[in-house]
Amino acid sequence: MLSPERLALPDYEYLAQRHVLTYMEDAVCQLLENKEDISQYGIARFFTEYFNSVCQGTHILFREFSFIQATPHNRASFLRAFWRCFRTVGKNGDLLTMREYHCLLQLLCPDFPLELTQKAARIVLMDDAMDCLMSFSDFLFAFQIQFYYSEFLESVAAIYQDLLAGKNPNTVIVPTSSSGQHRQRPALGEASTLEGVEASLFYQCLENLCDRHKYSCPPPALVKEVLSNVQRLTFYGFLVALSKHHGINQALGALPDKGDLMHDPAMDEELERLLAQVPGLVNSATANPEAGCLPSRTPPRVGSPWRPLHHARKVDAESDGSTEETDESET
Amino acid sequence: MKTTMSSLSAFGDSSIQTPSKSRIRQGCHSAGPNVSGDHINLASSSMPSFPILQRSSEEKILYSDRLTLERQKLTVCPIIDGEEHLRLLNFQHNFITRIQNISNLQRLIFLDLYDNQIEEISGLSTLRSLRVLLLGKNRIKKISNLENLKSLDVLDLHGNQITKIENVSHLCDLRVLNLARNLLSHVDNLNGLDSLTELNLRHNQITFVRDVDNLPCLQRLFLSFNNISTFESVCCLADSSSLSDITFDGNPIAQESWYKHTILQNMMQLRQLDMKRVTEEERRMASIVAKKEEEKKRESHKQSLLKEKKRLTINNVARKWDLQQHRIPNIAPNQDRKVSDSPQDPSQLHGSTVSAFPEETGSLDSGLTSALQGLSVTDTHLVEVDGDTLSLYGSGALESLDRNWSVQTAGMVTTVSFTFIEFDEIVQVLPKLKIKFPNSLHLKFKETNLVMLQQFNALAQLRHVDQLTIDPQGNPVVNFTLWKYYVLFRLSHFSMQKINGTEVTQNDMIMAERLFGILAHVASSELPQYRLISILGDARKKQFRYLLETKGKKPGLVNEENSDSKRLVGENTNRATLNYTTRDFYNERLEEIKEKKKFCKMYMEDLVKEATEINMKNEALQKLWPQMFIELVRDAVIEIRNKSSYMKLCLQQITDQK
């Protein structure tokens, strides 16, 4: 836990990297917001609850978009919350349009921007017919990639455009033509007949990007895996491949595998309990006539700290027993 | 013919019909006269075509002024010699085709040519004293050549083929005009007949009557068996003060239900209708019925005016809405003005609105007012209460909820319909709606810009909603496949019966719960306590704020609010955290938070700085400490290397301290 590398970082950088300040600021802000209510039961308890909810991933519920986007952990928590809340919609088999998914997103985050949802939809639909229906799993995985790695994807898009136009940001321009240059500048006629860009070249640029990018990137090894399967690929082809890649999903840790997407036994149990109350729907809660102003709650689920669903961490080099909260994606 | 008889009594008692003892001499070419029983001698004349009439001198003396040539099978008028003082001449029942050879009879007062074959009125220009002219049952097609007959008293043209009344305006002494059984299609051109008291127009094809009010003496008008179907076509009769006797039987108008009282109402001067005396009772009934009809007409006119106003206003509101939604480009302002200047003066509009206020319903005739009570109608919005429905068009209409509604009216309203109003604006007045219209169970939304499922959360604050109708027009949210289930889920505590007209089944409820139940569970049990409080508290705070904004805070209200909040608690608590804040409020709140965020950031930065400084110092100390410690130990060891000198030093220090 107290690895020398961690302590080697200067203070600010360390705090920034772990986004500690973000959470602290937010906690203090929340405290200020609700000081009348919170002062009733103590500040210490407030902080406990706050950080517990951060651990459990429930801190992002009904929060504004700027907060949800602030840290990778928040993003992952949001994805997970979305999956948990609306898994039933997917299970029902309904195919929904982009706008409907956006509506559902807005139920959890009122000011979620439409552009993100649109971009996610574009991945699923390969930039075609934006009004098409999408299945829950397709959308969810595409959305995950788009939302979690949004900054990364923007840079990738820029790189892709450059490559398409024939400019390679990586190569050094040498007056004497080398084989590399020949490959970089195919005649325009060639480019139009072949779709997309060359995979290996693409990978080189991405590798550089991952190195110098301060935002989260997918693990380079996995990216290489994705790109090694094909000769050429288009931008959206690449994104689709990313979204469907199991390894990346696992690396992110927010969502279960595609096969398990509809399974959540704990929640299903809860749902059955709720459903059992439906026929006698007339005031299922009249059994709790509390005079207090606090709503009566079912005993809070002792939420275990949120762990990513897959513990297959041993593979990676950095298995120093670091807490589960840190993802490879954050390095 | 009987009427003519009675009016001719002035001429004396001798009946024309008795065969007179005259003789008609006949020309050789004419058919043999029927001289049986007659003393008519027709001698041949010098003119080959016309017979010459001669009478015996006894006859001349006996019946000096009258001559009857009835049924003589005459085909032409004979030449009548030596009878210049003749006053009555009878040519009935012959076959005469032209009126001729009587120009010399300039004293003629009575001329009877009934039942002949005359085709044209002519040959009468010298008969200036003629008073009675009987030309019934002929073949006359046109009234003409009567210019000189200024003393005419009776003109009988029945049974002819006359199509038009004309050339009679000079007959200012005419008292009886008989045009029955002709081909008249309308009646006009009656001016100048200043003495006319009887006009017989039976058995024609008359569809309208005009100019009768120009006949100052007309008392009897017979229009039986014509083609009159409305009173408007004979409306001039109402203006004739002299008319006392009229017949309409055999006309289509007589079959109408309103026939009798309409005639009686419009012609108060009538004494006989269709040959029956008009009783007082009938007159009274007629006036009552007419008054009722008038009222009804006025009322329906008012209603149609109101409807028109309403329609225009709604159109105006719709267009403003479309502009707002950027659906149509901004058109020239003068066109806008044209629409806003509805047919009536705006001041008049306001005037009419005041009178239609619900408090003053008592003054309106309950029998005639329909349930429609048009309320404030201005150009930009429309508020209307129609029995059990309150309809609001345009965002300005929301202000009307502040008005003092009578308890009765407000209590009757069970349906509230919103059109052309932004849903976000509606959300803000929902608390008011809850209070002012406690029985509203059915909400309808059309063109209200419902785009997010989240917006339905706002409806949860109402007391009870039984039915919900979201019109697809202008509400994109209806295009979502799951919208109904979400509504059922979020508003499950209402146990809604119908959505958009379709019944809600148990399966629907189950499906709704199945789809969104986990959302509710997550929203309630997984939120930290302080979030729950803040979200719920927020909602309640907002409600209080709205209530405070209404006129005065009544003490009774506070209790209600408490019980309300208790009920809110009692309802599905796990959904209570699913709220809807309108976009504006949300952004407002985010703005407010910005300041706090900035402060927090600064505060945290200070804390971090402090902490890092301390940490740095700590680390520096940690680095330096071993060295320092060694030096400390070394110093101490060096100091006490020489035990005796150290002891002396310590003692010295102690004494120095004293």
Give the spatial strand order of the biggest sheet of chain B: 4-6-7-8-9-10-12-14-15-16-17
The side-by-side strand order for the widest beta sheet of chain A comes to 1-2
Question: How much helical structure, as a percent, in the residues of chain B?
Answer: 25-40%
Pair of chains with the largest interface and how many residues each contributes: A-B, 72 and 69 residues
Q: Give me the secondary-structure category of chain B.
A: alpha/beta
Low-pLDDT stretches of chain A: 172-193, 281-331
What can be said about the biggest beta sheet of chain B?
A: 11 strands, mixed
Helices and strands in order, then pairings?
The complex is a heterodimer of chains A (331) and B (658).
Chain A: H1 4-8, H2 11-17, H3 20-33, H4 35-41, H5 43-56, H6 65-68, H7 72-91, H8 98-108, H9 114-125, H10 136-148, H11 150-165, H12 179-184, H13 188-193, E1 197-198, H14 199-212, H15 220-228, E2 232-233, H16 235-244, H17 246-252, H18 265-276
Antiparallel strand pairs in A: 1-2
Helix pairs in contact in A: 7-10, 8-9, 9-10, 10-16, 11-14, 14-15
Chain B: H1 2-7, E1 23-24, E2 41-43, E3 52-54, H2 57-62, E4 66-68, E5 79-80, E6 88-90, E7 110-112, E8 132-134, E9 154-156, E10 176-178, E11 186-187, E12 198-200, E13 208-209, E14 220-222, E15 245-247, H3 259-266, E16 272-273, E17 276-277, H4 280-324, H5 333-340, H6 346-355, E18 372-377, E19 382-386, E20 389-393, H7 407-412, E21 415-419, H8 423-436, E22 442-446, E23 467-470, H9 483-490, E24 498-499, E25 502-503, H10 506-525, H11 529-549, H12 555-570, H13 583-639, H14 643-657
Parallel strand pairs in B: 3-5, 4-6, 6-7, 7-8, 8-9, 9-10, 10-12, 11-13, 12-14, 14-15, 15-16, 20-21, 21-22, 22-23, 23-24
Antiparallel strand pairs in B: 1-3, 2-3, 16-17, 18-19, 19-20, 24-25
